[in-house]
Amino acid sequence: MTDLIQRIKSLSEEYFEKIKDVRRHLHSNPELSFEEHDTAAYIEKILSEFDIRDVQRAANTGVTFCLNGNGQGKTIALRADIDALPIIEENDVSYRSKNEGVMHACGHDAHTASMLGAAKILHDLREEWKGTIKIIFQPAEEKSPGGASILIKEGILENPKPEKILGQHVMPLIDTGKVGFKKGRYMASADEIYLTVKGKGGHAAMPENFVDPIAITSQIIVSLQQVVSRFANPKMPTVLSFGKISGGTVTNIIPDEVKVEGTFRTFDEGWRKEALAKIRSIATNIAESMGATCEVNYAQGYPYLINDEEYTERNIKAARDYLGPENVEDLDLWMAAEDFASYSHHVDACFYRLGTRNETKGITAGVHTPIFDIDENSLKIGMGLMAFLAINELES
Length: 396
Description:
Blueprint: H1 2-28, H2 37-49, E1 56-58, E2 62-68, E3 75-81, H3 108-124, E4 132-138, H4 147-154, E5 164-175, E6 179-181, E7 184-187, E8 191-198, E9 202-203, H5 213-224, H6 226-231, E10 238-246, E11 253-254, E12 257-266, H7 269-289, E13 293-299, E14 305-307, H8 309-323, E15 328-330, H9 341-344, E16 348-357, H10 378-395
Helix pairs in contact: 1-3, 1-10, 3-10, 5-7, 8-10
């Protein structure tokens, strides 16, 4: 394996400038979820330059193809997401977004560029491994129901059917040169909650004549915190947060209704379903007890993400071989959500983190912020490690 590692690292260095240019092009031309038409065409263009053929579209703006090695063997899949976010970029860089109000603020440009580099390396070394590698450039990770669930329904995990799937995501909390793994449950499910409390509005000086939805809403929000503090298993991480309340116009008028929006996150599908039912019951019963009504609606989001224990352990050992043990970190549970989770409920999965932080260069901003950026040296590891993990799994 030592010789293979050196060859992959050498190819990563050789293709670095090209992949950096690819990443900058993608960063300059971001597209929102389900609108990645130019992005998909650009991916196809780069693949053609790499002499990679038989490329197909998936879910309209996704791109997929298979690489075949030197002989029959296992089938695995690699996935990168390609969409951007509705954020106005504030970075003063030459590759700043040209699409005002749209930005690659979550690193999907780096994911896509790294995957293109990995595909090129794997294509170059195809005589060195056996089996099939299905490459998936997935649209719409950032928007529910998520591109992963759509691709799965379209059959992306069939013909051929991968035994494993691997994905990586940038992590600005980890220094460039390092990666992070977590076996088992890793990222939370995420559902959106929408409450509409309807009362009877009127003059605020005569509350006895009306039904105040603001006062009732405050009771509902406080009471709903018991879903976490009194109903959730203390050993099961659970978050219920409300991020938006709207209702009323001025100080002396009780409004007719108040709208509330929030999110519920956890790591167990059974508890997830039970908790959402409790939220509905508590909210409607409190409203009715105070003379109002409460409409409760959910937008089901992504399931929790689980990394297969054995597969992830093999990847951890391989990453230590590739980077050195000191550059492979253990991750904690992450309450954010990611639609790669959908794959993890259909096939053994491993989703790991690629360090992109560089304090010397001032690259420390978090994802989903208008000043997010990456240390582009991380692209060398992004493409090289993914290629090595793929070959390692095929040959294991």
